[in-house]
Amino acid sequence: MAEDDRPVAFDEYPIHQVPLSMKHVATGDRNAYDRCIFHLLDSEGRFLLILGLGVYPNLGVIDAYATLRVGDTLHAVRASDALSDESRTRMEVGPLRILVERPLKDFVLTGAADPDDPGGLSYEIAWHADFPALWEPHHTQRRGARLTLEGKRFVQAGRCDGWLRIGGREVEIRGWTGTRDRSWGVRPVPGEEGGRLAEEHPTEGFHWIWAPVRFDDRFLMVVTQEDADGHRTLNDATLVRAGHRDRQLGWPRTDITYRPGTRHPQSAVVRLTDPTDGKPLELGVEILASSPLAVGAGYPPADDWQHGTWRGRDWTDRRAYDLADPAAHPLAAYGVLDHAARFTLDGQVGHGIFEHGSFGRHDPSGFTGFDSVAPARP
Description:
Elements: E1 32-41, E2 47-56, E3 61-70, E4 73-82, E5 91-93, E6 96-102, E7 106-111, E8 122-129, E9 134-135, E10 139-143, E11 146-166, E12 169-186, H1 195-200, E13 205-214, E14 219-226, E15 232-240, E16 247-248, E17 253-258, E18 265-273, E19 280-292, E20 315-322, E21 337-345, E22 348-360
Antiparallel strand pairs: 1-2, 1-12, 2-3, 3-4, 4-20, 5-6, 6-7, 7-8, 8-11, 9-11, 10-11, 11-12, 13-14, 13-22, 14-15, 15-16, 17-18, 18-19, 19-21, 21-22
């Protein structure tokens, strides 16, 4: 028997869904993926740490990243390697590691500094869930008749304790807000030829909001996705409280105030509805700090590294980006940005992420094309 055909550790457990070893996925699609993302932020928006890890079984790649925004500087660490059988039980790539201490409960997030640069980014953080994990709606996208994205995802909120170091400075982490998601399925990875379907079905516009919010006694998740004409293809607003049934808060409608000349949100109001009495609810959003996922974190349309791409064995890259000048990173405007934010709802104050992406035409926002931005205020 060839080494690649042997069983793996997970095959010992009664968790199989298809008659295959757990080292294989049930699709031959090159875009098959399985990954996670964690967001950690303080209540003042001084620090925004984003980290994640992904497995691409049909590409034979595992990779991870961590980005920390402090002031106008984004510090990034990225690592990639060949996927091995042990990668499923040991979520570690280069200097970055995610340890699952108790599934759906407790995690330890570790990032080691470069031995040649001890002033670089390093951290060790305990992430603890405060609320049950929540499924998002099943997410699909097609280009013509072809299914290009199908993802299953859950989200969760908690609190974080530990430390991080950057530039020789150590920061104590006590009770920071933490959010995370886990998703798997198929999702486009760079390198695929678009062909006829891409030519005949170009993307006219895309508008996305994804907002996990942690309050002291509740967790709110809002997600919407709209096409160029405002047609909604993904929609959910759910409130989670320990010991209570989840409450669906209607059809969220968001009014965003953009920085003039950009599509960068400064604040927003998400209009929701209490299902018990039809009372309108308003989720206020105040942006504290922002991190473009196309800079450092490997999300499209990043031009220096993207998830799932092969960089050879034991690849690690560390760098710092200056975000003071938006013109230095023009592609970031065509990707998703994660904003650390302060939220208000029904007299309570919470914190979390206001993830926003808007590019191309979006009729409800008044954006007419890819070069359209918010007008100057009178």
